[in-house]
Amino acid sequence: MNFRIVKALLKKDWTLFTNNRFYMLITIVGVIFYIGIYFILPSTVDEKFNVAIYAPETTSSFSSLSNQEGISIEYFSDESSLKQAVLDHKFQAGITLPSNIMEVWSAGDKPVITIYYPSDTSPEIKDAMVTFIKELSYQQTGQILNFDTEQEILGPDMMGDQLTLRERMRPFLAVFLLLVEILSLASLISVEIEQGTARALLTTTVRVGDIFVAKGILGIGLALGQAILFMALVGGFAHEPFAVLITLLLSSIMVVGIGFLLASIARDVTAVTGWGMLILVIFTIPGFGIITPGLLTDWVKIIPSYYLTDTVNRIINYGSGWHDIAQNLVILAAFTALVIWGGMAALRRRYH
Question: Domains in the chain, ordered, with CATH?
Fold first, then answer.
């Protein structure tokens, strides 16, 4: 590899990138837009409790609980519907009362009351639900602790503080910034192939490896630079900054590999845009699982960007450490190595 040649190629590629008004515009405006979205989003959470209750047997005392300030109660006719509503995050908790609860209370025994929570429920909400059931028990029996509870998490259990919409959007926006650069890099390469620039360069002392290094540096620099700027402004480096940086670096390299692959299969810039948008849509799907926990199931793990999105989310929103994200990083690194190798091999054929 000739560093002088790589430097000249980088200068050429940067000029070509800045002359492409569309991708230059979406790069600059995109960063400003995503940062603006983050600060516009709500930074607080609704402190009113929305509770679902399945109670085969109720009394007037149950209904009086609905009038309490700070709590909204909806009654369900079957337990499966209640569990699905909680899983869909329509309620902060679901309470299932046994069908013989009044008989058990009358006999002086303790009924078993089941509480269902979404996967991201905070300890404070869990404590509040137990307090709520204590109030229910007191109104029925005059004894505050006359019950036992079974607590069940619906969906993956990721213990942590209740997150605002702003905090949920941080991983999604950071990943989206990275993925958009797939289109930019693939378009840049496609234009060179269409215009014959790549083949012309290879008739000189320039080698294919020099071209890959130059374009790789440019692609990684554009993707990583935007992601770092965004994360720095939105507080993404507050916890385990080195782990976040490594994750973003791996992801930027992955973006370069996918860009190489996309440029190798697309015939022209129009095809790059079409295929690129399809890849962009698919790779952003895991982010919606963070915005709305419980929306997606385990099938989303077949999408490679899941391991990027999940890693960033675990670190910045749940305070996870290296041990918690190690498996994600290994999978992400393996996929990155695969697409880099595949992209370079495919492009090498097109150049020749």
Answer: 3-42+163-351 (no CATH), 49-154 (3.40.1710.10)
